Amino acid sequence: MKTKKIISASVALLVALTTILFLPKDRQKAFAYSYPQEQAVELELSENVGTRGLFSIISLSMNVNDGQVTATAKNDFTLFTSTVRVYVYLYSSTTNQDSYINMSLESGNYIDDLDMGESISASAAINGVKRYWQARIYYKVDNKDWTEKLSNVWLIDVDGTIINE
To answer: Is 141:83 a contact under the CB 8 Å cutoff?
Structure first.
């Protein structure tokens, strides 16, 4: 009897996770900026999304490859179907700053529903300039509060070598 309950619960969880993995992925929007953050376009967001998922794990990473710095947000796990809206931003400055607010917005990207296992990135060229870089994500799961995550500030030299993390 106990084994049947465990098997039934496992099958239900497997069906829910499989449903999440096969949702359509056609809602991605991209944008890029080459001007300070203060001039960024004001965004209008629909708040008619209800709470469906129990929780989501959204990770932030930053890497350097082939003369590009890339910030990536990934939906590592979502329990039950959710709408996960994500903004990913990449900032830089020639001087060390305490906050991304004092840095220049180099690139950004947005998706109105980041499905489990998927990721979204924003990249910018190093362009032979030694700069400090920071990645930021701002995301919302269903109708819960917005959450912000920041990377450490990295100093990256003209060749793309990370001097400090």
So the answer is: yes
